[in-house]
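Appendix C. Worked example: 1-phosphatidylinositol phosphodiesterase
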Amino acid sequence: MRRRTFLTGATALAATTAALHGLPAVAAPPRALATHNWMSHLSGSTQLRQLTIPGTHNSGARHGVAWARCQDTTITQQLESGIRFLDIRCRPTEGSFAIHHGEVFQQMMFGDVLNQCQAFLQANPKETVLMRVKKEHSNESDATFRQIFDSYRNRPQYAGLIRVGDGLPPLGTARGKIVLFGENGLPGFRYEHGPLFDIQDDWNAGIPGKVQLFKDQLGEAHASNGSGKLFVNFTSVAGGWIPWDSSNSINPTVRAYLNGFAGSWNRHLGIIAMDYPQSHAGLIETLIARNP
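Step 2, the predicted output written as structure tokens:
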């Protein structure tokens, strides 16, 4: 019921939120898009940094107390809706990875995440999944974290599923695979500020501050003209905010801001990682429409 009520009033809420933050009014919704295979229409030579990629923050966080929940859909449902960046938090436990948000176990293991991604990519072989994997709520060494990750990667059922490389591949090379953005000693290129990434993830900025940081990062991404770094722009905040409540303010603002501009301004905007994006009608489609 909560979702149905919110979706009915999504346009009004977006307009109200935009007015509060001094953002452009909501424009007409983008054309209907097939969200499950939107990458299939793009050239294989397209560089990942040239895309606008919907993503989720703490993608596996659906359980526990209100502060621990950042999503209300499964990994499969996220991918079907157009999400192509997953933020996966893993706690090493007895030789496996348990998905966590802080201390809260999310009733899912890393193998469950891989199985859902694999099934989606088998059904949609021209898509790719960009996956950040990081250690969560654990004092285990990076060496142990790497050892457990390698044990998953080397399982026969996942042969060829996870791409580990020295740099960001073009879309054609990434198709049908999970592209690893690794932390905590994982192989391949590192997910961090540096030659490959420009990351905005200030979760303690509060809502007005976060909106400004989001806008600033969009401007930087646009100015890059799709060359150089892959921009990552998180809309999530903490610092006393429950993710559901903050997303009800920020997500409509994101959509209103994007829809307030026309032409080529809002292209190649990088990864936009969000809480509860499926609960805000048209948000993911608005981002997908910012691709060639």
